[in-house]
Amino acid sequence: MCRSARTGSQRLAAGCRRLSAGCLHPGHGGTDCATECQASGLAGVSLGGLMGMMLAAQPKSPIRRLVVDDIGGYVGVEALQRIAAYVGQDPVFADRAGLEAYMREVNVGYGPLTAAQWAHVIEHGHRIDENGQWRQHYDPKLAEPFREGFSEPVALWPLWDLITCPVMILRGGLSDILTAETAAEMVSRKPGTILVEFEGIGHAPMLMEPEQVNPVRDFLQD
Question: For FRET with 39, which of 105, 134, 142, 219 sits at 20 to 30 Å CA-CA?
Fold first, then answer.
């Protein structure tokens, strides 16, 4: 998921068996560790959902149940270009207030978060560099490999069609990343898929409210 979604992940973990991976020697070994995992449920927000789809589509995937949050089988050019305007940027701020104002602006799709929830997002979504400046806590080079691809839509239907485990789709009612049409086609192509939409939210539902967390928890525990 992501650092700023810790509140939701902690609620989801209640009553569940938690698994973690200690990467003491990342990139070493001749085996694919993902294929050696025990059967598990996975919930991923945005890029995390895409990674979940990729893992669930693999032969003999360990993913028993999958929740994809506001990502799906098709993403249009305009939505990608909007994200390209800020993903991979590395702005610096003199203080917390400047960082918070920026994050509220670019993440308006999170919806009507409370002051405490925004404080949580900032707390777990920033770092202070060696010069005492405030930065977002992620690698800005994340966008480099696929930035040029933002000029064309992304179609992931072949990947979606390979997934055989039960899936729940979460969608922000105002989202341009996962449109209503794309979500409907995902359900049509995979009967039995559960679609849950949250009004007044764009990209993406952050799983910080009980009405967002509870259906996910119930689905993963089923």
Answer: 142
Residues 142-146: contacts with CB under 8 Å, at least 24 apart:
142/87, 142/88, 143/84, 143/87, 143/88, 144/88
Cα–Cα distance measured from residue 117 to residue 206, given in angstroms and rounded to the nearest whole number: 10
Domain with CATH 3.40.50.1820 in the chain: 3-76+153-221
Query: pLDDT tens-digit profile of 124-176?
Result: 999 999 999 999 998 888 777 656 667 789 999 999 999 999 999 999 999 99
Tokens at residue 142, please? 């994340």
Q: What is the pTM of this model?
A: 0.83
Look up the CATH architecture of domain 3-76+153-221: 3-Layer(aba) Sandwich (3.40)
How far apart are the C-alpha atoms of 51 and 48, rounded to whole Å? 5
Which pairs with CB-CB distance under 8 Å and at least 24 residues apart come from 212-216?
A: 212/8, 212/170, 213/8, 213/11, 213/12, 215/168, 216/12, 216/43, 216/67, 216/168, 216/170
pLDDT in tens, 82-101: 888 888 788 999 999 999 99
